[in-house]
Amino acid sequence: MENQLIDLVTDLKDTSDNLSAWDIAEKYFENLQFGAINCGVMEKGDGALVGFFSNMSAGWMAHYLDSGYDQCDPLIKHVVDGKPDSLFLQENKDLFTTSDPQRSGNMFREVEQEGIRSSVVSPFQQPSSRHIVGINLGSALPTAEFLRLVRSNRMEILVGLALVQNYLMTVWSDLRRQGPWFPVQSENTILTPREREVLLWLSQGLRNDRISEKMNVAVVTVNFHMQSIKQKLEAKTREHAVAIAVSRNLIEP
To answer: Domain HTH luxR-type, which positions (predicted)?
Structure first.
């Protein structure tokens, strides 16, 4: 196991390809008998889920998000709450029936049907970052065997998680444009084409009067779009709105 950890450190250091780095991390944890690897990126302020890196199928991830499972997933809440301890799926399955019993119950059953019988989640934050990263490692092993696996490989798991999480925090804005990235956009954060255009001009430093000329609309219309944008993104200022839109990949200035 020590050799695998050394290889992980070396490979992550040597690679300049973000997708290759994700493959390296995936193979490392697969060698430790983890079949499902999900990495959630959340806003630090309100705990809103921005999106996932995942080695699970695109179909499953789309179903997970369409079903609103991210809104009742105790693993996500565990990360957002900043709890440092590990959370095990089977041992804590009662957590899946707290906030939304029907939805969370469906999620728990479907996760088991996907072959994930045991799972451990690790939260990670950097003081200088606006985001929280949580990696969830799933396995088909029964809980008792899974616990023995985790305990016997504790150092390799913890160090591996720290290395991968730190790397993802550094390059996640690039990775999400390449994949395997599954974005989360709730209805109140989806911008109209006109609102995106306003933000694009705003990101280039234009004032409302110049934006109205570019878009061939009245200044009052631009003001209306700006108020709608700030409300949807819960932004305090115009600059804040641009920063949020860029961080969530809603625009590319």
So the answer is: 184-249
